[in-house]
Write a structure and sequence with these properties.
The chain is built from eight helices and eleven strands. The chain is α/β, with parallel strands linked by helices. The chain has two domains: 150 residues, Rossmann fold; 88 residues, Dihydrodipicolinate Reductase, domain 2 (2-Layer Sandwich), CATH 3.30.360. Helix 4 links the parallel strand 5 and strand 6. 40% of the residues are buried. The chain binds NADP nicotinamide-adenine-dinucleotide phosphate (NAP).
């Protein structure tokens, strides 16, 4: 069977590890590279107690021992280092699946232009869980009937960006639907130990409110969306997908 070579950046992280394990367990994907800033030189098989996995972790992408000519880079790290890593990968005509959030608008636009210039496939998805995507669908539907909403996003205390990429995207979708400015849809960010990733959208009109909530209890929630995205971007040319629906509904 033809397999797709995948390099995961952030392989020791909360999300990157769940995603990398799912990739390793998927028969048409082949985990060929593992990147983590502070774990260069470690052996991923030993870390996972998986004697069948012979893969060294490197701290940078250019330290990969045998970079494949054709691969998909999956990135779950932080925006500052991801930017250079994505540039490196796209310039080598690798496709990219990006879960990392916190890029500026200029950075996102620059990377989208690079994707087009090098004719690779890309998915920049703020949230790879089916529940978050469905929350977007119902919120867009509700926005046809309500004229005001606020977003409450709650995450673990170590999350770096605020508001979350998921909340920013919800803000953009509602702003588009209502043809308003982003600032007209307030976002409340909560960072506390014990939380994982949670988002509530509250619509209000005279005498009533309507709340939709999505909870991620475990990062395995993101794994299947990423696996499907890897397959999808590998057949794309020069385009960025931002809507998980385009990947989930691709049968
Ligand atoms: N799109 C989605 O569905 C989704 C879902 C969840 C999270 N996220 C996003 O994914 C990102 C990671 O979140 P997380 O909670 O998993 O973070 P985390 O637990 O802090 O893990 C970060 C990972 O990135 C690595 N890393 C950090 N800086 C690096 C650098 N300069 N070079 C190479 N590797 C580096 C870390 O390596 P070390 O362990 O060696 O430090 C670690 O493996 C965040 O941007 C978050 O918002 C997206």
């Amino acid at each position: 069977m033809d397999t797709i070579a995948v390099v995961v950046a952030g392989v020791t992280g909360r999300t990157g590890e769940a995603v990398a394990r799912a990739i390793h367990q998927t028969s048409d994907l082949r985990l060929v590279g593992a990147i983590a800033k502070n774990h260069g030189g470690e052996h991923l098989g030993a870390r996972w107690s998986d004697s069948g996995l012979d893969l060294a972790v490197t701290s940078t992408i250019d330290a990969l021992s045998a970079p494949p000519s054709d691969a998909v880079l999956v990135d779950f790290t932080e925006a500052e280092s991801a930017f250079g890593r994505l540039e490196w990968a796209i310039q080598r005509k690798w496709d990219v699946v990006v879960g990392t959030t916190g890029f500026s608008q200029e950075q996102s636009q620059y990377l989208a232009d690079l994707v087009e210039r090098h004719q690779v496939g890309a998915a920049f998805i703020a949230n790879f869980s089916i529940g978050a995507w469905f929350l977007e669908r119902v919120a867009i539907e509700a926005s046809q009937y309500f004229g005001q909403a606020e977003i409450v996003e709650e995450h673990h205390a170590a999350k770096r960006d605020r508001p979350s990429g998921t909340a920013r995207r919800m803000q953009e979708l509602l702003a588009q639907s209502w043809k308003r400015n982003l600032d007209d849809i307030p976002v409340h960010s909560i960072r506390l130990p014990g939380l994982v990733a949670h988002q509530t959208v509250i619509f209000g009109s005279d005498g009533q409110s309507l709340s939709f909530r999505h909870d991620v209890h475990d990062r395995s929630a993101y794994a299947q969306g990423v696996v499907q995205a890897v397959r999808k971007v590998h057949s794309l040319k020069g385009r960025v997908i931002n809507d998980l629906g385009e990947i989930l509904n691709d049968h």
